[in-house]
Amino acid sequence: MFTACKTYTLNDAKPVTSVKKTVENLYFSSTEDYVYKCQMDIYKNHVSGILIIKKISENTHRVVLTSDFGNKLIDFEISEEDFKLNYVLPDMDKKIVINFLKNDFRELLKRNYPVSQSFENKTDYIYLSKADKKAYYLFFGKENRMLKQIVYTKNNREKIDFTFDAKKHIFADSLNLRHKDFKINIKLFQITENQ
């Protein structure tokens, strides 16, 4: 609980000059289905199933979570401006759960980040993107230039840590979404591979 009170700082990183004006999170940018085994821990509740993310327009994704047996748990469409809940299982139909999922997936599916500052450390190029009171630190591996991590902060406090493992720029093989101030953790593991 004490981490929520701590200001986020980059360790062992030095400022660098960069020509990049924008960086992108290309995961989930294809129109192919992204299918993952999903494990969610929300406080003391554990939910597992299959998560499908599909880009349905330039700015909108559809997200569907089903049980392992194929029963729909939640189905929504989301963009940076809009959220449309198509279905939610009555047990999950709690305002706090819906808001967490809406906010988490809105941050996860955000694509464009204007660069405010650039840094680097031994292993990563790091780009800072600021908007209002929000800041995003995007870590791209020096070896393969792929997005490894996004740290989302608000008012200089770390809120969510997205960690990716990928072999392709448009498809994360696994993803770990970890809240810093709430006991919420979402893990995704690839089931199908996109081209």
Explained architecture:
- The chain has 195 residues and is mainly beta.
- Helix content is 8%, strand content 53%.
- The chain has one helix and 15 strands.
- The strands form two sheets. Strands 1-9-10-11-12-13-14-15-3-4-5-6-7 form a 13-stranded antiparallel beta sheet, with helices on one face.
- The longest helix is centred in the middle third of the chain and has 15 residues, at 95-109.
- The relative contact order is 0.21.
- Residues 1-5 have low confidence and may be disordered.
Global Rg: 17 Å
Average pLDDT taken over every residue: 90
β-sheet strand percentage: over 45%
The total strand number stands at 15
Model regions low in confidence, pLDDT < 50 over at least 5 residues = 1-5
Helix/strand-derived class?
Answer: mainly beta
Write down the overall geometry. Answer: globular
Largest sheet: 13 strands, antiparallel
Question: How many helices does DSSP assign?
Answer: 1
* N- to C-terminal distance: 41 Å
Query: What fraction, in percent, of the residue positions are helical?
Result: under 10%
Strand order of the largest sheet: 1-9-10-11-12-13-14-15-3-4-5-6-7
What is the succession of H and E elements? Answer: EEEEEEEHEEEEEEEE
Question: Descriptors for this entry?
Answer:
disordered N terminus; 8% helix; mainly beta; 13-stranded antiparallel β-sheet; single chain
Helix/strand layout:
Blueprint: E1 14-16, E2 22-24, E3 34-42, E4 45-55, E5 61-66, E6 72-78, E7 83-88, H1 95-109, E8 112-114, E9 117-120, E10 124-131, E11 134-141, E12 147-154, E13 157-168, E14 171-179, E15 184-190
Antiparallel strand pairs: 1-9, 2-8, 3-4, 3-15, 4-5, 5-6, 6-7, 9-10, 10-11, 11-12, 12-13, 13-14, 14-15
